[in-house]
Amino acid sequence: MSVPLGDFSRRRLAESPRLDLFRPFPDLEMVEVLARDNVTGRFAGIQVKTATIAQRYHEAHIHVRKATLSAASSTWLVGLAWREEAGAFDAECLLIPASEIPKVAYDDGTVMVIDFHPASPRRTSLDRYRKPLAELSGLVVEEISITRPAFGA
Prior knowledge:
CATH architecture: 3-Layer(aba) Sandwich
Helix content: 10-25%
Distance between the termini: 40 Å
Order of helices and strands: HEEEEEEEHEEEH
Number of strands: 10
Structural class: alpha+beta
Radius of gyration: 15 Å
């Protein structure tokens, strides 16, 4: 699935005046966007992944390349689910520490796959990572505040 999300995800994150955003690495790396809290000097590396919600099962399969997985406490995955019928992202997203991905995904060869059922009432191992998409920038600022300080801070 190919949804032009670069501008969308950066706009969502840029909603907080505390976040300075950088695109430090090509998409082949785990960190796609570097978000720096301009108040504390702390940072988070973010990989944004999207998947279209399948009509039949109402789930989105988010793929993360195993070769790029990072266990760094300052690295996060943002998972977005595209609703084809609405032409928009679901109001719920995932915000998962990269180190937790192997615990909530299944191994499918060269990738880890996360089965995301946005807005589902069923309890899953993803429940603690389900977040309102509208609150993404504030949630990233909150997570940055509890990660280790940046060098020299």
